[in-house]
Amino acid sequence: MNRRNFLLTSAATLSALDLFSTIDKKFSAGLEKQLSKLENQSFDASVENEDFWGWVRQNYTISANLINLNNGGVSPQPKVVQDAHIRNYQYSNEAPSYYMWRILNEQREGLRHKLAKLCGVMPEELAINRNTTEGLNSIIFGLDLKEGDEVVLSTFDYPNMMNAWRQREKRDKIKLVWIHIPQPAEDDATIVKLYENAISPRTKLVHITHLINWTGNIVPCRAIADMAHRKGCEVIVDGAHSFAHIDYKIEDTGADYFATSLHKWLGAPFGSGLMYIRKDKIKKVWALLSSPEPDGDDIKKFENLGTRSFASEMAIGTAIDFHNIIGAKRKEARLRFLKDYWMEKTVNFPKVKLSTSFKPQYSCAIGHIGFEGWQAQQIEARLFENYKIHTGSTILEKVNGIRVSPNVYTNLEDLDFLVKGLKEISLSDPPSGK
After folding, report:
1. Of 137, 153, 307, 315, which sits most exposed with the smallest number of CB within 10 A?
2. Model confidence, pTM
């Protein structure tokens, strides 16, 4: 994206930020300065422009003494998002029932339209909620399924979703059909065939995790969805780790039903999310919580949560603005660059086992690494004890190691330090007696 287009994109963003008083003069001056530096640079050069990404880093309030490489679990919010949240929270406390219900709540429709534009869907297809689990559980428990109906899902799906389906299996006697996806899997046809072979005449739904949280591998969601639709099945997509991480619109996934957490890669306040249901399918999903028309066709039936944090919800808009300032394509490219940076330096380490693809269509920010003889928790503990690097550990099927997930504020010095720690581990014996 050249500077002219970058500025055109940013102009609307800055207007919105000024409108909600979530951006200060220092931020505005810093942004304009960085944009001027990018004026004569190619897109590829901007992805590796450490001055620009250093400015991005300055807009976070991250620890100076701990390296956080577990952003896949939950991401920190840029300071402008924190400020918006805190300002709304203090505002609400002046007279909660008035300022929350009558003022902030009235902004929800504006936020819904803003999210819809980001997602590439109609506003009336989006519900604003608290996280992916809430969204997907609303769908899983809201769909009419009867004994013997089948659902296809993967052993690498997220535990909360697998447990929701197991509850339906136990309560309603539906049948769950599990597939096993090798990590990494780097051939669309092979992955699609795994799902296709699991579908029978009784299959009603195919559940797809777009980006596998354990390993960072991207699943060819649209190809699977198209195949499933041809066979008469509906498709549920878990977009928790792909949304605002890789650049796409919801319709690109082929999903009939979709949910994500906005406190992950979008950097919105903790406990914020959205759910999408294709307009012609809203009526067939029962509301999970009480609603005057639980089987109606209004997406807002899923927003009857009672009192919740309107201050948090309204700060989602600021997170969208910050995301747009960076640019979705630029953000994706930077995240993939960071993953490749450290993985390429470790690929030839002794005893190494990488479970994440290097191919750009199959991975982005998240990478997974293990070492022969070492348990995942031992690697995680050694990095934290010796280097104060925070990662996540995974032991699942043949995957045994740590998940490394940098974010846009991560610098190359952090990753060089990670590589140093991983090299030490690769040359060492694991702790005994553990």
Report:
1. 307
2. 0.93
Closest Cα to residue 260, out of 246, 275, 270? 275
Upper half-sphere CA count for residue 317 (Cβ side, 13 Å) = 27
Per-residue pLDDT of the chain (434 residues; tens, 9 = 90+): 444 444 444 444 444 444 433 455 667 677 777 777 777 788 899 999 999 999 999 999 999 999 999 999 999 999 999 999 999 999 999 999 999 989 998 899 999 999 999 999 999 999 999 999 999 999 999 999 999 999 999 999 999 999 999 999 999 999 999 999 999 999 999 999 999 999 999 999 999 999 999 999 999 999 999 999 999 999 999 999 999 999 999 999 999 999 999 999 999 999 999 999 999 999 999 999 989 999 999 999 999 988 888 999 999 999 999 999 899 999 999 999 999 999 999 999 999 999 999 999 999 999 999 999 999 999 999 999 999 999 999 999 999 999 999 999 999 999 999 999 999 999 999 998 54
Q: How far apart are CA 57 and CA 413, in angstroms?
A: 13
Tokens, residue 279: 């307009």
Q: Cα separation of 246 and 265, whole Å?
A: 9
